[in-house]
Design a protein that fits this description.
Number of strands: 9
Oligomer: single chain
Number of helices: 11
Radius of gyration: 19 Å
Shape: globular
Order of helices and strands: HEEHEHEHHEHHEEHEHEHH
Structural class: alpha/beta
Length: about 290
């Protein structure tokens, strides 16, 4: 597949419906179109170009146009997350990316709104009437260019100390179409390779490297210029194949309303994670605590 995308459903669109090694399910819930793609085996990995595992995509209202947070979409996200997260144990949430670069700030912004509860003692929790909170920890590991440390090394070090039952990582993604930017959320149980969407591959963060389930959540915020040009050509019925050259600098395209997209998408994902983990709290309570 000669195009760059982190989205499993975009890769699946290029395949025939009966492709061996791939299973698909499509449903609608609370105004959200949900696609569940399962890559079953090595054959499926080869044809779709993604590791074996589950990929769930939620098509939601554009974050750049819609500020509503409690319209049912958050619960859809929470329900899909609960299908992948163990019922018990501490959950470690890591917000990946560079907060100083807006299209890459989804992870840090989301992690900053997580309800971190691991440090709370039972007496303190009871005094606020918030018993039975799920133990949750949140970190923003930063980027290797500033820390000098691989992201997976930071997460691994913390995980070895607090021993979570699962790790959730949030990262910005790349799409192959501009209309997908800020309009979809992808969840997977296959982990993530930080920076892969922009061709800056880092060590993978997954169950193999960390020893516990790693659930990745992301929103597409960029399209690379060659993939975008290829998409425009195909939409006009042409069949020219574009290729990057050695002296060609890769450029990324992002929506002009990217500030709003990141602000609203990060709040949406944070609410979804909080609702999935803190089932004894109402969404309105969680929202008030998040501020």
């Amino acid at each position: 597949m000669n195009f760059r995308t982190d989205m499993a459903d975009e890769r699946n669109e290029k395949l025939s419906p009966d492709t061996d090694g791939i299973e698909c399910e499509f449903i609608n819930k609370a105004g959200v179109r949900i696609s569940r793609i399962t890559v079953l085996d090595e054959q499926g990995e080869q044809v779709i170009g993604k590791p074996a595992g589950k990929y769930i995509t939620l098509d939601v209202k554009p974050f750049g146009e819609n500020a509503e947070i409690l319209d049912g979409r958050v619960q859809v996200l929470a329900d899909e997350l609960k299908r992948l997260i163990p019922d018990k144990g501490t959950v470690l949430v890591a917000g990946l990316g560079n907060e100083q670069i807006t299209p890459d700030a989804l992870g840090p912004r989301t992690a900053s709104m997580l309800l971190a509860t691991r440090h709370l003692k039972s007496e303190t929790v009871k005094s606020f009437g918030m018993e039975n909170l799920r133990s949750t920890a949140a970190i923003i590991p930063g980027v290797m260019g500033r820390t000098g440390i691989e992201t997976v090394e930071i997460i691994e070090g913390i995980a070895s100390k607090i021993k979570p039952s699962a790790i959730i990582v949030i990262d910005a993604l790349a799409s192959c179409r501009t209309e997908r930017l800020g309009t979809t959320v992808q969840i997977s149980d296959t982990g993530v390779s930080p920076g892969s969407g922009v061709g800056n591959f880092r060590s993978k963060i997954d169950r193999t490297t960390l020893g516990v389930p790693v659930i990745a959540i992301g929103v597409p915020t960029v399209v690379d210029s060659v993939t975008l040009a290829q998409d425009i050509i195909e939409k006009n019925g042409l069949s020219v194949q574009l290729k990057e050259t050695d002296n060609q600098k890769m450029m990324m395209v992002t929506p002009r309303e990217i500030d709003l997209v990141i602000e609203r998408a990060s709040k949406f994902i944070a609410m979804g994670i909080n609702c999935a983990l803190q089932e004894n709290l109402q969404p309105e309570e969680i929202l008030s605590v998040m501020g």
